[in-house]
Write a structure and sequence with these properties.
Number of strands: 0
Shape: globular
Number of helices: 7
Structural class: mainly alpha
Oligomer: single chain
Order of helices and strands: HHHHHHH
Distance between the termini: 42 Å
Radius of gyration: 17 Å
Helix content: over 70%
Largest sheet: none
Strand content: under 5%
Length: 172
Amino acid sequence: MSALSILYLVLPFPLIFILHDAEEMMVQHRWMLTHRESLLSRFPKMRPMLIHLSSLSTKAFSIAALEELVVLLLLTCHVLADGAYAMEIWSALFMAFSIHLLVHIAQAVIVKGYVPGFATSLILLPYAAYGFYSIWLAMSVTELIAWSALGILIMIVNLWFAHWIGLKICGK
């Protein structure tokens, strides 16, 4: 990765992640409890996920976010050390995070209102777009799609693991 890419994209990523997850941590549990019944009636096929998200206390969610932050910090160190496949792995997780921001925006449109993470998702769209553009310049379309798919898969598996840790530590 170029020095400018590291300066503008890689180094701010953990701080941007913290900003986004701070918004989610502050409101997620209370928002889920307030909107749970409405969401369950409007989206019955989402019941297992909604029950799971409602069960995450602020502490459990924070522990999960901390686990994800540790992974992101380790990856940032790997990029700074110019490790093997650093750009590709970083791009995979960056694309997964950027898609995650779009999911929050889609959720807000679907529920016709605020959802946890929506405000920072809107604010972070220019950063995500710039990162996508930078990755687009460095990879072929096939590589971009493949690494993005891998990043989403890693994100899903790690999210499950992070939530499991959060619930386990909090005694649920």
